[in-house]
Design goal:
195 residues; alpha+beta; Arc Repressor Mutant, subunit A; 46% helix; globular; binds iron/sulfur cluster
């Protein structure tokens, strides 16, 4: 039997998809192209690769490659070789791609009010679903086991050893692993990452 949670989640998901499709049609692009532009606008510096996008959007490698080629030729994205790993290419929105996305953004999901309890419930649902399907990734630093607050508004990723800016910790990350209690414990400072 389908639970009430499933019913409402499915309705939210279908409404979101309809809105995305409508916005893409108005801009003269396909839904998957809009999804890629959206992903690039919310993902962090470790997550802007074709592989991460394929996993996030559930696309095969071949389909993703075709879609990226199309929006690259349309001038919406550009690829640059990764400065740390020359074998890897990273993908960025161009000014044209950002402008295109911002035009469509007006018709997408409104900014939803979310209190701490609602966000916690949604995260718990996601964590449970991902665990059951042996999936991981695509969360914000504030719920990741690798996040460390250093005090003074500074943060570090213990996986990469790199400093994180406030703007980084709001985005989603391919490498994200839920901290045990969804709330990052801050050693020696008694602080939590800001929600
Ligand atoms: S702390 Fe976690 S979510 Fe944040 S950058 Fe590091 S691995 Fe990614």
């Amino acid at each position: 039997m389908v639970s009430d949670v499933n019913i409402w989640l499915e309705r939210l998901a279908s409404l979101h998809k309809c809105q995305l499709r409508k916005a893409a049609v108005e801009e003269g692009i396909q839904l998957v192209h809009l999804e890629i532009l959206h992903y690039l606008s919310i993902s962090n510096k470790y997550s802007n690769t074709a592989q991460a996008m394929s996993e996030y959007l559930g696309q095969s490698k071949g389909s993703m490659s075709q879609s990226l080629k199309y929006i690259e030729e349309a001038g919406h994205i550009e690829r640059r070789r990764c400065k740390k790993d020359g074998r890897m290419q990273r993908i960025y929105l161009t000014p044209e791609g950002r402008a295109c996305y911002q035009r469509m953004e007006q018709s997408l999901l409104p900014v939803l009010p979310g209190d701490e309890k609602t966000v916690h419930t949604l995260k718990a649902l996601l964590m449970n679903w991902q665990e059951r399907n042996s999936l991981k990734g695509f969360g914000q630093c504030k719920s990741c086991q690798y996040s460390q607050a250093l005090g003074g508004g500074k943060f570090r990723c213990d996986l990469t050893g790199e400093a994180l800016l406030q703007s980084d910790i709001q985005k989603i990350c391919y490498e994200h692993v839920f901290a045990g209690n969804h709330v990052v414990r801050i050693e020696n400072t008694g602080q939590s990452l800001p929600e």
